[in-house]
């Protein structure tokens, strides 16, 4: 079972966390199942960018991003070359390290 190492994030995971998740699970599902309540405004249907994460290690072990995900990522706050929508990033057998960006595009959440 791969391990997801989540780097500390002030709101979602202040101390960071390591979780085990079954192969074939999305990073978003694994985080939610283990108490890391990352935003997922579209209920993991690849229709928003609120579950955007940056894969610090293990990026190439994930499934390849489809065009729909890549188009949405263009709107994500803090986009980086190793950005993924966590609802679309499916785990293989390798461990991954994930950073949740400081902000999301969800302005209502951030009181703008």
Automatic annotation (TrEMBL):
CDD domains linked: fer2
2Fe-2S ferredoxin-type domain boundaries: 2-104
GO BP: any one term: P450-containing electron transport chain
Keyword Cytoplasm among record annotations: no
Claim: Iron is one of the keywords in the record: yes
UniProtKB keywords: 2Fe-2S, Electron transport, Iron, Iron-sulfur, Metal-binding, Transport
Identification of the protein by name: 2Fe-2S ferredoxin
Cofactor: [2Fe-2S] cluster
NCBIfam families, alphabetized: fdx_isc (TIGR02007)
GO CC field: cytosol
InterPro entries with a match to the protein in the record: 2Fe-2S_ferredoxin-like_sf (IPR036010), 2Fe-2S_ferredoxin-type (IPR001041), Adrenodoxin-like (IPR001055), Adrenodoxin_Fe-S_BS (IPR018298), Beta-grasp_dom_sf (IPR012675), Fdx_isc (IPR011536)
Family: Belongs to the adrenodoxin/putidaredoxin family.
Any single Pfam family the record assigns to this protein: Fer2
Molecular functions per Gene Ontology: 2 iron, 2 sulfur cluster binding; electron transfer activity; metal ion binding
Gene3D superfamilies the UniProt entry points to: 3.10.20.30
Upper classification of the organism: Bacteria, Pseudomonadati, Pseudomonadota, Betaproteobacteria, Burkholderiales
